[in-house]
Each structure stands twice: as structure tokens, then as C-alpha cells.
Amino acid sequence: METQRMDGTTVLVSGGSSGVGLAVAKGLARLGARTVLLSRDADRGRDAVRAVQEATPGADVDVESRVADLTSPASVRRLVEDLGGTVGSLDVLVNATGSVGERGDLRPGIPRSFATNALTHFLLTRAALPLLRDAPEARVLTVGVAPALVRRLKDFAVDGVDANASGVRVLTQAVAWKLLMSRHLAETGAGISAAVFHPGLITSDLLGRQALPLRIVGTIANRFARTTCPVAEHLGSRTADLGPVGGMVDDRGRTVALPPTISTANAARSWAASEALVDQLE
């Protein structure tokens, strides 16, 4: 997939200390972007910075890490205020935070897995809008899942989250809401482009703390996985037209057909519901 240099641009990558986020950061930093990684832990953030630097030996890559709790509106506001004072504008935001197997509620009625896999993306994106609007042709890229799963998104809540739903249904709703967020942002974001991308098979420790069968699956998958994310480099470096409707692309940069449930009306409803849920995190 085609890429171009990103010198003079600034990108912010959530989940940047491992997995997809780290893979994306390596590629965008290699293309010359000033790359800011987000992590919940300062030590993991420093390790990620070294990994990005080592991925491009001999190059003077501009990469740094910041610590933020993306489930905390106050923490996200502090982060964005600090970025506004240091980087000014934001050309690309990559939402790459994700989890598998989280249990319990972050707040009453808000499953922790839904907060991590959907609300963190919304909270960071909404807070970063002023920085994105200050950049020409800014874009927001959000990690998705395999297209085969996306095509089956037919029955999910739009106006709230069912705290009693199974873990699979909660994660299904999170996938749908990321697509709806992207669509709403692209349609209302005043010049901001948005897309959801399937990263392909990326080296990750996401399954490392799960039950033994899943750990085995993760170990085998990592033998065949990439340590970079070419589709994110393609989309982030503005070589791809994301279009006006906030769609999705697969790991080869091809447009994915979305089900009718990913509609303008549902996008507006889920955006409003996300705002209400995020208010409960204050």
C-alpha cells in the first residue's frame, strides 16, 4: 500500500505501548510524523518509545509518551490541554485502545469492557476535536475487527448499553459504536475525515492474561503476526481518500461494505448516548 512522508505532522496514538497502537506508532514515526504515544503506565510508555526508536535504526524519529487514563474525563482533559500547549494542532488521531476478557463494571451500568473498547475512543476523540480542527485535513482512525464480523452487525443497542448483556454482546456493541462514531464524526466534523480500519494480524499480548486456551491461540498467532500496521500508515499519511461517510477499510486498504444499521440516524443516536455515558464517568 502506498504511503508518503509525514514530516511536519503530529499524530496521537492511544494504546501506544503495545499491540496495534505500538505497531501504528512505529510506522507513522518512520514516515516522519511527530508521534505521541498514550499509555496508562509510565514505564510501559518509555519501553514503547525505545521500541519505536529501535524499529527505525539510524533515523532521528520524534516520539514521546504521555500517561493518561482514558476512562477518566478529567485525565483526558488534562492531556488535551497539555497537548494544546505543546503541539498546538493534531493531524492524526489513532484510537487503538482495546481489551479482551475484562470483567465487572467501571461504573454502575457501564461494563468495563465496553468502556475500554468504545467509550475511551469517544472520550479522547471528542476532547481532541479542537486540536484536530486546527489542522488541515485532519483524520481520526479507529481500530476495528475483521470485516466478516462487521457485516453481521444487525442487533445492538443504540441508545445505551445493557449492563446485563453477555460479554460477546457487549463487545459487539462496542464494535458497532466505533463505526457509528466514525460515521457521525465524518458527517459533522467540519473537515475532519474518519475511518475504522482492520489492522490485520499484529503482534500483541492481548491474550497473554486470558485462560490457557486463549493464551495458546495468542502465542501461535504472534508467530505469524506483523510488528507494523501498513494499512494505518496508508490511511494516516493521506494517500487514501477516506470519503465523506466515515466508513471502514480492511487490512489491505479495501473498502468494507457496512450493514444498514451503521446509518446516519443511528450514528447521531449513539453519539448522544456516548455523551450521556461519559458524563457518568465524571
TrEMBL record:
Pfam families: adh_short (PF00106). This is NAD(P)-dependent dehydrogenase (Short-subunit alcohol dehydrogenase family). Keywords: Oxidoreductase. It comes from Curtobacterium salicis. Gene3D superfamilies: NAD(P)-binding Rossmann-like Domain (3.40.50.720). InterPro entries: NAD(P)-bd_dom_sf, SDR_fam. It comes from the Bacteria.
